[in-house]
Design the sequence.
């Protein structure tokens, strides 16, 4: 790997002074000092998103990262049994778990308290305390 | 000077010189094994037998390249003599990025390419752009590689999300692009969680569950019919037994009965993962993200929304040229289902959905770029014109280069 060598290929202005060349056009003038090393840490996505949003002054209808999300569906959400994946005809009012038949309901009644939230988390419907 | 095409996907890197037929597919991740605590960069994971409970460190967050320390390690490995044997100073680079990438990320990409590696030149564009350039072959058949259709909708079903990008005369219609946050990763995770509730605890086994998804999952043409079948008499037609790996005789496991050596490999101690409605209920999240509690429309509605956002006169032509690319386009049945669902929304006329058959759909961007470089069409020389050399980068600085690539979409 020649990563270190790559930095040296861009000739800085120092060599120009020594050589005494008068024509500036013949000298490479990189926009950045080749010896400069930034010590910044990479930002995570959340920081990037926030910074870019603050920095941008696009019109509202201009397509950007923030407004290309597909619009929500107008169709009603389908209901499936949280335990078996079969079509759910019933919802347990106590735990909010959707279930397919009385047989599954027997199983719901034996669930440990708290574990119903894990089932609900599967379809992003659990109660999150913040 | 040789040209390296590097399709930097969030799951695999597709990399290879433009003069070869097939690119290499390198996992774009750093994996650490659970038991032996060893670290494997990129493709080195193939050398490991300890694939249970792998801990992954990905350079990507939600499809955007942010963790450069991880990415540099993977790129170093990919460019090394063992894999590609690339000398950056003597190589032109074609690099892909997501649609609507952030300025800051583009800037660091250019910085890495020119300052860290010192590539001779760079051409950076979205992967859908390259897929669109090479769409002629898939849509029109053999011998028409150079004729990209005038109107085209590229649906990129990737690892971290799905992008729908309409193209008109080779240029992206930016105002009509739609994104959906369902991709291969969500499907794998959803399968993993579902299975963990119903059969075995697979929460740590992302690697295995990805293999299970690739081998067992499919997109159903009629969800309710198949759901009925799955718990009725015809269950046997849909149910499969997946034999989980023991890491001694098989690395990723296999479907019982599909492999010739099945009975030989079936030992008393093997663990079997029965799959039935999970096989098609999981990919259904592509069409109904509301099933997993997401407030977004399905892929078919996203395609339709994108087409409707285009100029009215272009809409019929757009609907007739829908190209599905990306790793999750490998799901069997996705093309037919998408065609049927979009047709149901479309007012009239024909809807045509194409998935590349001559190569894997995840290679579409790579193949498109390669075809353009090798064709004699005017578009090819156009690619050369968009290239930015290292000298130019050092002269103009990153902002002008970003503005330059902004016009190439």
Sequence:
């Amino acid at each position: 790997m020649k990563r270190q060598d790559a930095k040296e290929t861009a000739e800085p202005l120092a060599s120009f002074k020594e050589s005494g060349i008068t024509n500036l056009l013949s000298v490479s003038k990189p926009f950045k000092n080749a010896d400069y090393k930034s010590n910044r840490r990479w930002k995570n996505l959340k920081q990037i998103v926030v910074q870019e949003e603050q920095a941008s002054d696009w019109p509202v209808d201009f397509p950007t990262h923030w407004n290309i999300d597909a619009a929500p569906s107008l169709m009603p959400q389908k209901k499936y049994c949280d335990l078996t994946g079969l079509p759910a005809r019933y919802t347990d009012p106590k735990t909010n778990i959707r279930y397919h038949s009385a047989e599954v309901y027997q199983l719901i009644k034996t669930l440990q308290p708290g574990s119903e939230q894990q089932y609900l988390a599967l379809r992003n419907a659990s109660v999150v305390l913040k | 000077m040789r040209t390296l095409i590097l399709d930097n996907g969030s799951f695999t890197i597709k990399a290879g010189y433009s003069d070869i037929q097939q690119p290499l597919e390198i996992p774009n991740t750093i994996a650490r094994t659970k038991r032996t605590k060893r670290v494997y960069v990129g493709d080195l994971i193939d050398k490991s037998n300890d694939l249970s409970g792998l801990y992954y460190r990905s350079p990507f967050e939600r499809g955007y390249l942010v963790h450069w320390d991880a990415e540099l390690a993977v790129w170093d490995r990919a460019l090394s003599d063992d894999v590609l044997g690339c000398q950056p100073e003597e190589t032109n680079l074609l690099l892909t990025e997501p649609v609507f990438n952030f300025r800051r990320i583009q800037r660091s990409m250019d910085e890495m390419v020119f300052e860290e590696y010192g590539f001779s030149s760079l051409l950076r564009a979205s992967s859908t752009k390259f897929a669109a350039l090479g769409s002629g072959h898939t849509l029109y058949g053999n011998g028409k590689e150079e004729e990209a259709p005038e109107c085209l909708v590229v649906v990129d079903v990737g690892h971290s999300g799905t992008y729908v990008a309409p193209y008109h005369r080779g240029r992206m219609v930016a105002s009509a692009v739609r994104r959906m946050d369902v991709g291969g990763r969500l499907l794998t995770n959803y399968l993993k969680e579902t299975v963990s509730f119903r059969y075995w605890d697979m929460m740590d086994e992302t690697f295995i569950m990805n293999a299970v998804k690739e081998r067992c999952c499919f997109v159903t043409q009629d969800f309710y019919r198949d759901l009925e079948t799955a718990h009725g008499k015809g269950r046997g037609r849909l149910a499969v037994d997946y034999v989980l790996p023991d890491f001694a005789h098989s690395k990723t496991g296999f479907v019982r009965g599909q492999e010739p050596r099945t009975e030989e490999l079936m030992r008393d101690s093997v663990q079997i993962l029965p799959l039935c409605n999970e096989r098609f209920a999981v990919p259904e999240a592509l069409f109904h993200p509301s099933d997993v509690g997401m407030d977004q429309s399905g892929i078919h509605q996203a395609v339709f929304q994108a087409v409707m956002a285009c100029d009215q006169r272009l809409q019929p032509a757009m609907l007739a040229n829908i190209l599905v690319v990306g790793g999750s386009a490998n799901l069997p049945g996705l093309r037919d289902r998408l065609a049927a669902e979009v047709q149901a929304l479309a007012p009239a006329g024909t809807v045509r959905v194409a998935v590349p058959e001559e190569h894997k759909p995840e290679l579409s961007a790579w193949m498109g770029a390669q075809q353009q470089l090798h064709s004699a069409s005017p578009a090819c020389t156009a690619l050369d014109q968009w290239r930015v050399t290292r000298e130019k980068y050092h002269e103009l600085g990153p902002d002008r280069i970003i503005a330059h690539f902004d016009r190439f979409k």
About this structure: Chain B touches chain A through 62 residues (CB under 8 Å). The CA atoms of residues 221 and 337 of chain B lie 6 Å apart.
